[in-house]
Structures are given as structure tokens and as C-alpha cells.
Amino acid sequence: MPHDAQCRGTGATAEVRPALEVADIFRRYGPDYLREHRLTPEQGKVFRAITRCRTAELGGHLDVCKACGHQWQAYNSCRNRHCPKCQWGVQAGWIAGRIKRVIHTHYFHTVFTLPAQLRPLAMGNRRAIYGLLFQTAWQTLRECTLDPKWLGAEVGVTMVLHTWKDMGRLRPAQLRRPHRGHQVPRPVHSPRRHHE
Predict the structure, then answer these.
(1) Are 171 and 91 in contact (CB under 8 A)?
(2) Predicted TM-score of the model (pTM)
(3) Which of 24, 55, 122, 152 is packed most tightly, with the most Cβ within 10 A?
């Protein structure tokens, strides 16, 4: 913050900027990375937003401390949903909401990987191919868990589509293994069998 870290008016401590942010890494190493790698249009948009976030490129506004009246110039944020600087509060709220809904039981983690032969097709037909991956993963899990040989119970599933292999390294979308991660709660009771 541009004024005292400990504002006398409220006793509230000002936000402390980390020594290194994702935007700093993008600005420092991005040009070299982009000379050797191609980003998809979506990845390029995220890269540019994070790089420009809270810089003069996006303009600015005047902030005022409500406690002491101190004023300072602040840069606008990119508001991109992938920007860690902008969206940490939204992300933290989303995670807190999910945690409230978690069933207190054990979970099975399952992964369904898109076959290599379908990956080029998925690049041009993401909605259709990934939709089929969701559908077939759910059908497979449901069929297996209903079978008394395996579990004999109706289950619910939380599914997540992973399309970037390593977010920190910003790999192109033609990544090696698009896959679905699933959290399957272990049932406590079923009509057919009782499980602890």
C-alpha cells in the first residue's frame, strides 16, 4: 500500500505484495517462452491479461483509505478468471462453498484419460469430445458402483476436466493427456450392502 502498513485510523494492516507474482514470471520469461511455444487463443488471452493486470496498460483510478483519508493512484485489474491476483477472493469463496458441501466420508479418486487417437479431434471439437468424456466417465462409474460385485450402491460424483498439463508452465492445449479427475464419495449405506 502507498501509505503506512498499519493505518492508525483502523489498526488494519495493509495488503502486502508478495516478493514474486505470476505476472512477474510471465513478464520476465514470457518472451523467451513464446519464441519456442505456441499458445492457443484462450491461453494467449489469459497470458496477456495476467501480464497487464494492475499496470498502466489497463488504466487506473484513485483509491482512498476510509480510515485516514490518504489517497493514492491504483491500477485497474484485468478481472480474468484465471488471474491469481484478481480472482483469489472469488476462488477462496468458491472453495469455502465446496467445503461446506463435502460429505464427511472417504473418497475414491478416479481418472479417465482421453485416448491419444482422439486428442487431435478434441482440439477442433472440444465441447462435443469433452462432453462425451463426461458422459462415458459417469456411465462407467455408475455401472461399476451399482454392481454388487464392486460396490452395490448409488453414488454421486464431482468431476473436473483437466486440459492443461501443468498450469505453472503454460503448456499449449495440445497437451499430452487431457483427462477427467473424479472424487467419488464412498457410500456409508446402500440398499444391497452396508459399508463402513
Answers:
(1) no
(2) 0.50
(3) 122
